[in-house]
Amino acid sequence: MKTLEVSVEVSARHVHLSQEDIERLFGKGYELKVKKDIAGGFVAEERVTLAGPKSTMERVAILGPARKETQIELAATDARKLGVDAPVRLSGHLEETPGIRIIAENGNEANPDHGCIVAQRHVHLTLDDAKALGVEQNQIIELKIDTGMNRALNFGDVVVRIEADDDTSVVHLDTDEGNAACTGGWCKGICIAG
Questions:
Q1: How far is residue 117's CA from residue 63's CA, in Å, rounded to a whole number?
Q2: How confident is the model at residue 128 (pLDDT cuts 50, 70, 90)?
């Protein structure tokens, strides 16, 4: 059995918009404004409201740049509150997922007919860390988090994402998982393979 210590980041609900939906919401030729750079992109200044069958959620973050398809990433509790039956999926695996109304502050709407998911927990590994852990792309591993309160927590079904461009290895959990495991939204974990 091999292990590797990694940082754990908690990702709150957010949307990735296609250019077509960006223009539906904000106008023809519109480009999202960068508020903060993050790995692989940026957090936009703009915010949207998600409107589901049961309720709405306001001021939801948009992550850029534009994607091929609009993707709405929710925690399971978010999906229940909105009334959306969002399946657990890896990013980009949007077939047979529900859609939702997305509303900009100006009142414009985008209504993708699919795209809502609960993101599968995953770890982004550098090439060197993947080699050290002895894992391959899309392999399933475990994650152990010591919460520091005598309440260690193990997560199964963590998908390996090997990223040639990454210089740091990091696990991404949603807010439900993060609230269960991490204090303050950030912690360390041990990836376990084999």
A1: 15
A2: very high
